[in-house]
Amino acid sequence: MDKFITLNHGSGGKLTGELIRDVFAGRFGLSDPLTDSAILEKSGFKMAFTTDSYVVDPLFFPGGNIGKLAVCGTINDLSVSGALPVYLSAAFIIEEGFLLNDLIRIADSMAEEAKTAGVRIVTGDTKVVEKGKCDGLYITTSGFGYLRTGYEQISSAQNVREGDRLLISGPVGNHSVAVMGARKKLSFSTPVESDVASLNHLIGKVLDRSREIHFMRDLTRGGLATVLNELCKMTGMGIEINESCVPVEEPVKGLCEILGFDPLYLANEGKALIVTGEKDYEEVLEVLKSDILGKQASVIGKVKDDRKQMVVMNTSIGGKRILDLHSGMQLPRIC
Amino acid sequence: MDKFITLNHGSGGKLTGELIRDVFAGRFGLSDPLTDSAILEKSGFKMAFTTDSYVVDPLFFPGGNIGKLAVCGTINDLSVSGALPVYLSAAFIIEEGFLLNDLIRIADSMAEEAKTAGVRIVTGDTKVVEKGKCDGLYITTSGFGYLRTGYEQISSAQNVREGDRLLISGPVGNHSVAVMGARKKLSFSTPVESDVASLNHLIGKVLDRSREIHFMRDLTRGGLATVLNELCKMTGMGIEINESCVPVEEPVKGLCEILGFDPLYLANEGKALIVTGEKDYEEVLEVLKSDILGKQASVIGKVKDDRKQMVVMNTSIGGKRILDLHSGMQLPRIC
After folding, report:
1. Where in chain B is the domain with CATH 3.30.1330.10?
2. A139 touches chain B (CB under 8 A)
3. I need a surface site. Which of A82, B2, B133, B194 has the fewest CB within 10 A?
4. pLDDT digit string (tens) for B109-122?
5. What is the largest CA-CA distance in chain B?
């Protein structure tokens, strides 16, 4: 029987993982298809290389736009891979009839974000497709960075041990709720802004301070819960987190309740999970909190020896809940 | 007055150049926005980095498909920049409802082409958009290569001198005619196959043999005529070519006549312009002809001291014709 691609294949959940494994990973010889960046080496000189397409709908939302998102997203993928982001490329697929001034606004915010983050956009491409063959604008950014010495294994989570602490750099759910609010189809508008931000400086500070950072990942498609599940799979261990320790801002919480969304599964664009050794976590928390992008950072739980590789959450009302990998999606085109 | 993006902005001609210069180059600080790759340096170690989105319609055409095109195109951009292509990324934007088996066929040919060319696809991304928000599939490939020593200036044409010879690696127009033929709207089908091919090995042989290669460029969007005009602009000199020396295969010629297209402006996906010093051109021609991808290579003309920076063609019937830069396009979505 013929099989077709569904929106769920793009959700960042189980089906996305299956698609990548079944269609691409084997054919392309990707050893670690679900990490954020490929790690390359040439005569002892190590680099990270990553790519992402951005198809967010709408293109402009409170706190950012597709251009800022594309720059931050690629910077963050490199950063959590232990690399110093240096160069970006940007490829634009534009729909015929797109307003030139909107393209200029988007390019402006890409340039501004790149400047703030200290990276350079060095190459690009522009294609135009007929009206109706794209939704305004899609941007694909690729990024290239120099790997920090000693962080070759950080994406693979090989150094994660039982008892390691899990920290997140701030509250979750803001990006998804901001984008939802901006979607015309939904009749509310929220005071919530996207958290889209480049995390390279924040992560740099953390890595400068601690030699015990064992894993990092930005909390994009699929959100915190998906990243925690992937971490269990990679380590063969379990995770225990405390619901009351996971920061969620009040307006985000309220809107999630109304709409039936779970903020733990919502995409963020300026948040990272950081796994540290037991001894270092308080110092790492302090470093995070000293930066504007990490001031609401929180220790949310720890790594447990659990062969079932489950993510268990102690709920606020005293129960336990298993956070599974969703096969489908909550929200299409959130990034 | 509001200005809008038109299909002509994506044609690779004058308007594409203007869009890149006016919207992107200044904001992003691109020093050389129209070259194929950015040249990067880190403590004496030089690299080339490039990106391209592929939106070809239809996705499958005689001689190839969008996947093969995306791999070859990025390999060729690196190769003509004097780099050895090593790593590729591939980002997929897929329309909901896309046939999984078609995606597999495309991934298969990407893997096969990468293997033939000796490059590795090391990282990727998958996004899915709703039905009607994309035309089946768009692919963005980025590529990374090591720059050969001594070729830092090749993309900028700084070493081009009066009297330098212009060679092309084979007949022009095949890719565009093959894609046109495959488009359902047109009621002919042709025996013409796309020339889509990775040129890295061919160009490697040329660079191994000659130290007098002054410029290279693949003849994609805008075709030979557009590349020649860009070369004039970069060097401040003129170009003279002979129409009878530019190979065009008979079926391509015939279809161009019927449809009113000029093969000199049609996109190719496996052809390069190579500019050599006067002394070396015969040897370079021999090297090209010894390879299956260059067996119809030809010396088409030379660089002239002409401050008007014009491309003048001696026509087959004994006249002269100026090859201008087209502001618009012949064919949308050819790559």
Report:
1. 32-147
2. no
3. B2
4. 999 999 999 999 99
5. 57
What is the pTM (predicted TM-score) of this model?
0.95
User: Which residue in chain B is spatially nearest to A221 when comparing CA positions?
Assistant: B127
- The amino acid occupying position B249 is E
The answer to whether B46 touches B109, Cβ cutoff 8 Å, is no
| DSSP character string of B84-112 | EEEEEEEEEEEETT-BHHHHHHHHHHHHH
Angle value at C-alpha B282, between B277 and B285, nearest 5 degrees: 100
- At A83, is the secondary structure helix, strand, or coil? strand
Per the omega criterion (within 30 degrees of 0), is the bond before B332 cis?
no
Distance of alpha carbon B274 from alpha carbon B197, whole angstroms: 16
Cβ atoms of residues A157 and A166 within 8 Å: no
What CATH architecture applies to the domain A165-323?
Answer: Alpha-Beta Complex (3.90)
Question: What dotted CATH number matches B32-147?
Answer: 3.30.1330.10
When computed from its CA atoms, the radius of gyration of chain B, rounded to whole angstroms, is 19
Prior bond of B58 cis (ω within 30°) = yes
This model of the complex carries an ipTM of: 0.94
Backbone angles phi, psi at A218, to 5 degrees: -80, 150
Answer whether B133's CB lies under 8 Å from B90's CB.
no
- Rounded Cα distance between A201 and A117, Å, is 7
